[in-house]
Structures are given as structure tokens and as C-alpha cells.
Amino acid sequence: MFSRFVLSKAQSFFFNTSKVISSDPFGSTSSDFFSTQIIGDNPVIVRDFIHGALYDPNHGYFSQRSGSVGVVERTIKFNQLEGQKAYMKLLDKLYKQSDVSWFTPVELFKPWYAHGIAESIMRTADLSVPLKIFEIGGGSGTCARGIMDYIKLNAPTRVYNNMTYTSVEISSSLAKKQAETVGEVASHSSKFKVECRDAADQSGWSKVEQPCWVIMLEVLDNLPHDIIYSEHQVSPWMEVWVEKKQDGSELSESYRPLQDSLIKNCMNVLDLEEDDMSPGIAARIWAKVFPKPRRCWLPTGCLKLLQVLHGALPKMSLIASDFSYLPDVRMHGERAPLVSTKRDGHSIDYNSYLEAKGDADIFFPTDFWLLERIDHYCSGSPMPHDKSSKRGKKRRTIILDTSAFMDEFGLPTKTRTKDGYNPLLDDFKNTKFYLSVPTHNTK
């Protein structure tokens, strides 16, 4: 799972061509990308459709498309750039040379971005025990390489010699690329391995009782979501499924009473009631006269992943970074995604997730307040600010803006231009870091 950040998305629109809204999503693309075999003949719940559209081995956007991930071949010398204009010009050149959809911050700011993450681990980890790191969705391997480089240079020799770094990557093409990137340093090879599998599949994990670290950079935005829907303000929530229309050429939504346990658990974390119990007469009349459909996207993929991780890695510390909001979202509903692709140099946004059947990225904003609640829920901790529970906290969590995180753990001088402009600190207003570590206060 690998994604991009909104600034790069906007820049890719500007640098390559104008943004285009697709009016005929099936017109100019190979039918393989739009094969309805993603769901087959039977209806599927929304999260399974999104998972297939992104990760299906034959049709998924990421499974066969390592080219969607941009790789910056050389470290950018920010100190040699005059300012923002020079930086934007350099990005323009990089996009034209590589013809990729997105550059991620770990690529644009390598090795400094990964070094900041490594420093945060070294300050917090108990270095008296072997350091174990897991990365979910390692992309091209740039983060793993940067972290291992930093630990080799800055940690005690025994820490580096005894460390292990495991990347869990669902894309076979990206898994191969990661092994190549990290393998460029001979001493890293014996400490690094990549497992090509779905991190949310519990069967792929063996329980690790020792303390360890889990890194997820721009992963949460590509995790499958579900939709719940109600016809108006006082009608009960229903779960949404995707099915073929009778002629089989298009897809549509269908609505069913709530039955899915993952959806119900996610609603519980959100404190959403399954039904509006005994609404007043005035509310019922108002809903009939002025009906307002309700639509909510639930991060059920995040809930499932954290349930698996907390079960397999009970003493894990977590570092996650992602979007806190997305601009220009066209779809309805709270936490709705952007669905975007690039075709013939044009960036195309779709109006519906149903139009993305393997040819487009589907990415969501991260509600960090909700992420914190899910993290506590999956670890067995009381919810944040839940004064009614007598259970002790098992997690200590903090949410930081990217600029605050890099100011604390990174080397901001390395990404500063001559006039003081610093794209790493100045441009990432829509991204945050989430840090979560275990505690021993469980009374």
C-alpha cells in the first residue's frame, strides 16, 4: 500500500497538464482495467470492492503498477535552491522526467524524512533489547533504507548488528523493488526481509511478544472503507453493497439492514447508534417534509488492520503518517475519498468510486481523532477521555503536525532553501503524524 500527499497531487496536476474531470470513464482505457470480474456475479460489501479495485492480483491499481510510485534517484540539494520558485521548477523537471503519478514525502526528502523517523524510534525504544521494526506498505524501500542507514551510523554497533527490519507489502512488484533498494547496502541485506502479503490477514502473522515498532507511511489513506446510509434523518442506518446491474455493464449500490460485525464495531467506536431510538413527532414530520439522506464512510479497513496488529504484536509502538484532510472531494459523505488517475498526461478525478475498477487510486482522509479511538479500542484500552472506565491506559498517544514532528526529530536545516523556505515544514499543512506506544499502567 503506497500513496501520495496532496501537495504533490496538486503539483502533478500543475506540472504535467490541466486537471480533467472524466465524463466517459470507460471510453479510452483498456477493458482489462475496468473488468467487472473484480466483484464477479455476486454483490460485495463496499470495502471488498475497494480492496479489489486497489489490490486485485489481475486488475488492482497497485498490484501490477509499481510505476505509480515515483522514485527520486538523487537526494535533492535544498540548500542550493534559491527558494520556493526554484523548488517548484525542480519538481516540474522531476515529474516530466519520471512521468509518474505521485511523489511521496519520504522520496522527495530522502534521506532526511526517514532519518527523522529513525531518530524518533531511537529516542523512545529500549535499546537494551534487539530492535524489531515492521513497515506496512514500504513502497520503493526508500524509508527502510533511510532508517537502516541512520541506525547504522548513529546507534551503538550492537543495536544495528542485532536489529531486524521486516516489510509487509501486498504488491509483488513493489516488494521486489524494496529488496533491491535496501540490498544496495550489503550489510543491510541480512537484517532486512520483505514479505509479500496482506498485512490485514491475520494468518500471515506469528505472534511477537517482544517490543517492536510498526511504521505506516501514507497507508491509512488506501485502506478499504465501508459506507453506511440512511434515507433521511430518523431512518435507521443501512450497510451498502456493490452489485452489477442486470445487463452486467455497470455497477450500482444496494442497501441492506446492518448485519456486518466489522461495520457494527466501527460504529461502536464512533458512538453511532444503529437506529434512531424513538425520535420525536416533530423530528419525524421534519424528516418527511425535508428529507436529508445521510451517508458516512467508515474506516473498517483500519479497524481490521489494527485488530490484527494488536493481536500479533501486543507490545508494538506505532508511527503512522497521512492526510488529515483532502481538498476538492466530489463524493458525498463524511470522510469521502478522492478517486484519481493519470491518463495521457492528464490527471483525472472520478465522480464515483464505482468508476474506479483498477485504473485509479482511491484514497481517504484520516480522521486522527478516530484513529486514536480505534487504536485504544483494539488494544483493550479505554477510549480517550472516557472517564467512566476504570481500566488503566495501555497506550500513550500523541498527534503531531508533520512540521512539529520533523522539527522535533528531523534535521530541518537539510530541507531549507537559501531564502529560508522549507517545503518539508511549510507545505505539509494537511498531513499529521500519529505516535502510539504501550504503557505498563493497566490497573
UniProtKB/TrEMBL annotation:
EC number(s) of the enzyme?
2.1.1.320
- Give the UniProt subcellular location, in the record's own words: Mitochondrion
Tell whether Transcription is among the UniProt keywords.
no
Keyword hit for Transferase:
yes
Entry GO terms, CC? mitochondrion
Q: Which GO terms describe its molecular function?
A: protein-arginine omega-N symmetric methyltransferase activity
Alphabetical list of Pfam families matching this protein:
Methyltransf_28 (PF02636)
Catalytic class of the enzyme: transferase
| Tree of life domain | Eukaryota
Q: Which SUPFAM superfamilies match?
A: S-adenosyl-L-methionine-dependent methyltransferases (SSF53335)
- Write out the catalysed reaction: L-arginyl-[protein] + 2 S-adenosyl-L-methionine = N(omega),N(omega)'-dimethyl-L-arginyl-[protein] + 2 S-adenosyl-L-homocysteine + 2 H(+)
Q: Which UniProt keywords apply?
A: Methyltransferase, Mitochondrion, Transferase
GO biological-process terms attached to the record: methylation
Record's PANTHER family?
Answer: PROTEIN ARGININE METHYLTRANSFERASE NDUFAF7 HOMOLOG, MITOCHONDRIAL, PROTEIN ARGININE METHYLTRANSFERASE NDUFAF7, MITOCHONDRIAL
**Chain's role:** Arginine methyltransferase involved in the assembly or stability of mitochondrial NADH:ubiquinone oxidoreductase complex (complex I).
Record's family? Belongs to the NDUFAF7 family.
* Name of this chain's protein: Protein arginine methyltransferase NDUFAF7
